[in-house]
Design goal:
With 205 residues, the protein is of the alpha+beta class. The protein has 2 domains: 5-78, no CATH class; 82-202, 2-Layer Sandwich (Beta-Lactamase). It is 52% helix and 17% strand. It has a 5-stranded antiparallel β-sheet, with helices on both faces. Strand 3 and strand 4 (138-144) form a beta hairpin. The two termini are 39 Å apart.
Length: 205
């Protein structure tokens, strides 16, 4: 970046405008959640305002002030959806097959949604995923399938891209275990769990 105060402000303003456009594209493509978008958009907009103010007033210190603060990657990570754990529920058998990771949610909180999904299945209705904010930063995602419903606990809102990846894993789980899941009594110890990759590796658990 230039040492000339005005040019430095111009360059910083252009950089923030480019970051805002990139952020808008990321959200449109489902790569980040709404919470991440709002936090980062506010950050970039505030810096853009400071750069604009620097150009109007000729204050050379303004851009240096805007460049301070926590790195954007830290802000991005702070608001990124992180899987804490998940629960796999067998629809036909009406029982929990397995929990993976840290899933401290009482079954009584899950029960109304699972019962609602079961009624919709019996009526041959199309069931869509459901996501609820259940605390200050916790989100609960329900992914219904043919045989199972997977409830996933996130810290921070998951992005559409994360949700699509988990939907793929749920589909792979059902395909890999189709013969077992079609039964009424299931031995969860012999099932394959594609979710383990997401829970243990993707978020360093």
């Amino acid at each position: 970046m230039s040492s000339d105060p005005r040019q430095k402000a111009e360059e910083f303003k252009s950089l923030m405008e480019a970051k805002i456009q990139s952020l808008v594209r990321e959200f449109a493509e489902g790569k980040i959640s709404r919470e991440q978008f709002h936090a980062l958009y506010e950050r970039y907009s505030a810096r853009l305002s400071i750069a604009t103010h620097a150009l109007m007033t000729g204050n050379p210190d303004a851009v240096s002030i805007a460049e301070g603060g926590p790195p954007t990657i830290a802000v991005r990570d702070e608001y990124m959806g992180k899987v804490q754990g998940l629960l796999i529920y067998h629809n036909k058998g009406e029982k929990v097959l397995e929990t993976l990771g840290d899933f401290p949610i009482p079954f009584t909180i899950l029960e109304p949604t699972l019962e609602d999904f079961t009624l919709q299945m019996l009526a041959n209705q199309l069931i869509d995923r459901r996501i609820d904010k259940i605390g200050k930063k916790d989100w609960l995602l329900f992914l219904p399938g043919q045989y199972t419903t997977v409830a996933i606990l996130f810290v921070n809102e998951p992005s559409p891209l994360q949700i699509r990846e988990l939907e793929r894993l749920r589909h792979d789980f059902e395909q890999a275990n189709r013969a077992q899941l079609a039964k009424e009594h299931i031995d969860s110890n012999i099932l394959a769990y594609p979710f383990l990759i997401f829970v243990k590796k993707k978020f360093g658990k």
